[in-house]
Amino acid sequence: MLSDNVVRLRPFQNDSDDIDRAVAWYQDPEVLYFSEGPNTMPFDRHRVERMYQFLAAHGELYWIDVWDNGQWWVVGDVTLSSDTMPIVIGEGRWRSQGIGSRVLALLIERARALGWPCLIAKHIYADNIKSQRLFARHGFRVVHSGVDSRGQQYYRYQLDLKSE
């Protein structure tokens, strides 16, 4: 588990209550727009479960928990892998509260501990200004821009972790 005492990244477990919360997140138009791109259809439970199976097989999948009023609340999910690191703050009240920045700091620390040479955020859509700013604040730089199969412009961000 990774934690800064306000945010913790709890290793994914296929807990029914957490999955139920996640299904609601992936039916939220704002989450879908910024994480999957415009015109993305809501995810049903089966699609959410398949997504988590894929992410868990390709990296370290975590639930994002926030300490508030004396208890931990699950508010999103994140994956740390060699070629991507999607961060989703699914609970609307926790967006734009600095949670993503705390999560990203924990992931950078974890990648350094693993000895990784760099971190990559593979697709940040051009409309997702908040995510672009988040990654730039943590030292990531744009290393590629492109257009996905649906014609949506995206940027790839990278942070070099080489020791100084």
Major sheet, described briefly? 5 strands, antiparallel
How would you describe the shape?
A: globular
Radius of gyration: 15 Å
Provide the residue-averaged pLDDT: 92
CA-to-CA gap between the ends? 27 Å
Count of helical regions: 5
Annotation, overall tally of beta strands: 8
CATH architecture: 3-Layer(aba) Sandwich
Percent range for β-strand residues? 25-35%
Annotated CATH homologous superfamily? Gcn5-related N-acetyltransferase (GNAT)
Number of domains: 1
> What structural category do the secondary elements indicate?
alpha+beta
Strand order of the largest sheet: 1-2-3-4-5
Q: Give me the strand/helix succession.
A: EEHHHEEEHEHEE
In CATH, what is the class? Alpha Beta
Low-confidence stretches: none
Fraction of residues in helix: 25-40%
Notes on the protein architecture:
This protein has 164 residues and is α+β, with helices and mostly antiparallel strands. The chain has one domain (2-160): Aminopeptidase (3-Layer(aba) Sandwich), CATH 3.40.630.30. It has five helices and eight strands. The chain has helices spanning 16-25, 29-36, 45-58, 99-113, 129-137; strands spanning 2-3, 7-11, 60-68, 71-80, 87-89, 118-125, 141-147, 153-160. The strands form two sheets. A five-stranded antiparallel β-sheet has the order 1-2-3-4-5, sandwiched between helices. Strands 6-8-7 form a three-stranded antiparallel β-sheet. Strand 3 (60-68) and strand 4 (71-80) form a beta hairpin. The two termini are 27 Å apart.
